[in-house]
Amino acid sequence: MKILVTYALDEECAGVTFAWHDVSVLMTGVGKVASAARLMQRLASSRQDLVVNVGTAGSVRHEVGEIVLCDRFEDRDLKATRLPGLAFELDCSSDAARCVSSRCPYVRGKCSTGDSFVTEACGDGCDVYDMEAYSQAYVCRMMGVPFVSVKYVTDRIGHNSVKHWADKLADARRDLARVFEPGMLLDLPSL
């Protein structure tokens, strides 16, 4: 099985391996456009069986250090336009159901993606806030590739988020690498 692990910045890259699987990594860059373009380019040139996005996120619902398995996504920039008929949500829970282990201890949640670093709480009901996951989920949906995203909460939104994000990167890399230990997250033979 060919698995592509994506991350926005080198500082977020966790050493991820899956026994018996062909794993490659892709640094997408920060933001929706860079992320979508680089992922589309890779998927167009190299077919993958699964894309797993790993990275950091802010939250108002979860504590720093928690890990959230995201299987639903929204584009908060598109949502803000409020144009009738404009889709701004993606549900990838069926992808997660096919590849996530029944023993996975992580809470599942919804990720809000936008081209800005969220520094103030917004009561939209999302679990985590990032800058890439929705665009990657969208590309994967277009290309017919299953997608899941794993986010480490580095900061509580509204509490000096930018500084806390930078301070928590080493912890994020360590804990995200643990997510991919056998039996923790993925049950790949079921794909």
Automatic annotation (TrEMBL):
Residue span(s) of domain Nucleoside phosphorylase: 21-179
SUPFAM superfamilies: Purine and uridine phosphorylases (SSF53167)
InterPro entries with a match to the protein in the record: Nucleoside_phosphorylase_d, Nucleoside_phosphorylase_sf
Name the record gives this protein: Nucleosidase
GO process terms (BP): L-methionine salvage from S-adenosylmethionine; nucleoside metabolic process
Organism encoding this protein: Candidatus Avibacteroides avistercoris
Molecular function in Gene Ontology: adenosylhomocysteine nucleosidase activity; methylthioadenosine nucleosidase activity
GO cellular component, one term: cytosol
Superkingdom, taxonomy of origin: Bacteria
